[in-house]
Structure formats: C-alpha cells, structure tokens
Amino acid sequence: MADDSKNLSVVPLIWVADAESSMTFYCEKLGFRMVNAWRPDDVLAWCSLTKGTARLMLQQHDKGRKFQKPHGIQLYIICQDLDQVYAEIQVRGGAPTDISDAFYNMRQFFVTDPDGNHICFESPIET
Fold this sequence. Notes:
Blueprint: E1 8-16, H1 19-29, E2 33-38, E3 46-51, E4 54-60, E5 74-79, H2 82-91, E6 100-101, E7 106-112, E8 118-124
C-alpha cells in the first residue's frame, strides 16, 4: 500500500451546547475564522473553523434528539484518497464500516478503537 499519511489531517469535533456562542468565542477571542457552516432553520448547528494550520469543528448537541453529545472523543481525519485509506485499514484488520455519503457532501467511514471512540475518515464528494 502507498503511504497516504502526507494527505491526512486530523480535525477534532467539539460538542457544544450553543454553536453560535461557541463559534463567536473561538473566532473573536481565539482568532479562528469560520470556513463552513450548517444552519438548519437558520440556526447555526455545525461549523468548521480554521486558524493557520489548525482546524476544528463545532457541533451543537440537542439533549436527546438527533445530535446527542457522545462520550469520549470524536476525530475526523480528512484524506485525499478515501478508497486507498479504506483499503489499507481493511487489510490491517481495522474493521472499518462501509463507505457512505454523508448529507454534508463528504464520503466517509468509521473505525472504533478499543475504548469505543469513533474515528471518522472522510473526503469531499467530488461534484
């Protein structure tokens, strides 16, 4: 397998009670810049932030409905060649889920570590 490690970046997903106020804090107080957002019903529910080479995502949980705050950590690893990364993890016995298309235009699969943490590998759906 070819080494795709130079084409990977880790992006933590931080679960927050109020995405708008958290986004404001990260942008105004810490100097991040919002580069993407999801606003169902015109309410910020998810966003992607960047500062230099640092990237993170904020996801609003809604206490018992669709987006519940999980336990542990969630990492999203963005890669250029999702199929190659999938094949490598499968060959190594990493037990990835099937690749699927997320509603937010990303192809993705998940791997669960021994402690139950979910790691998502994804790449943009090419249009």
